[in-house]
């Protein structure tokens, strides 16, 4: 006999249901069938230095698990600029993080999407986008846009379930660091952090908490 808690209802797990519905409607845009787990979200947020001045841009925040981890990390909600394509997720994000700037837009056109919403370089860009659904030139272009909007050596933080980098590596253009596998997430994931090597000596490296 199953206990009630072993079979959670949609009302008890609303975010998982929202993600699953979004994935069925557009799997290439949603990329995941459930929100990031706490361990994964905490690892991603751990690469952000809350003392670094400037906004923190989040791409594809979904229902906000990484956003919440960023706030817990010490990033003030009013510094958060959230770019989300799904209109239902945008509504939810505005309810959960009323001080944040929530933009419904195309993350792959990030520079144009945020141009009227930020007035200084970003401290970090944090992404939960399904990068493998896009060709390599678009993925490199996304990184270039992020670096162009950010302070020198600011991190571009991306999680993946894959065993390889979600952005094809170009050592002559950017450095890359990968976390240990996060077994507590389902499915297990890794976090990749990319930094432009055009300003290699401009800022110290920041290691993630628990990575």
TrEMBL record:
Is-annotated flag, keyword Methyltransferase?
yes
The family database entries (InterPro entries) matched by this protein are listed as: SAM-dependent_MTases_sf (IPR029063)
Q: Which Gene Ontology terms describe the biological processes this protein takes part in? A: methylation
Q: Which UniProt keywords apply?
A: Methyltransferase, Transferase
Parts forming coiled coils: none
GO terms, molecular function: methyltransferase activity
**Do you know which SUPFAM superfamilies this protein is assigned to?**
S-adenosyl-L-methionine-dependent methyltransferases
Protein's UniProt name: Methyltransferase
Originating organism: Ancylobacter dichloromethanicus
Q: Which gene encodes it?
A: pmtA
């Amino acid at each position: 006999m199953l206990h009630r808690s072993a079979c959670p209802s949609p009302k008890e797990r609303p975010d998982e249901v929202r993600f699953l519905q979004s994935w069925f409607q557009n799997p290439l845009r949603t990329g995941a069938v459930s929100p990031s787990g706490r361990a994964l979200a905490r690892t991603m947020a751990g690469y952000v230095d809350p003392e670094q001045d400037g906004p923190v841009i989040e791409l594809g925040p979904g229902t906000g698990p990484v956003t919440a981890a960023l706030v817990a990390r010490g990033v003030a909600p009013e510094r958060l600029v959230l770019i989300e394509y799904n209109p239902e997720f945008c509504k939810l994000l505005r309810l959960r993080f009323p001080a944040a700037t929530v933009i419904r837009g195309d993350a792959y056109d990030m520079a144009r999407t945020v141009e009227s919403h930020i007035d200084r370089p970003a401290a970090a860009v944090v992404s939960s986008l399904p990068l493998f659904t896009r060709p390599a030139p678009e993925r490199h272009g996304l990184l270039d846009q992020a670096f162009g909007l950010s302070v020198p050596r600011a991190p571009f933080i991306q999680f993946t379930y894959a065993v390889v980098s979600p952005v094809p590596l170009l050592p002559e253009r950017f450095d890359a660091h990968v976390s240990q596998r996060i077994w507590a997430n389902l499915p297990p994931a890794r976090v990749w952090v990319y930094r432009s090597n055009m300003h290699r000596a401009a800022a110290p490296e920041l290691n993630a908490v628990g990575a």
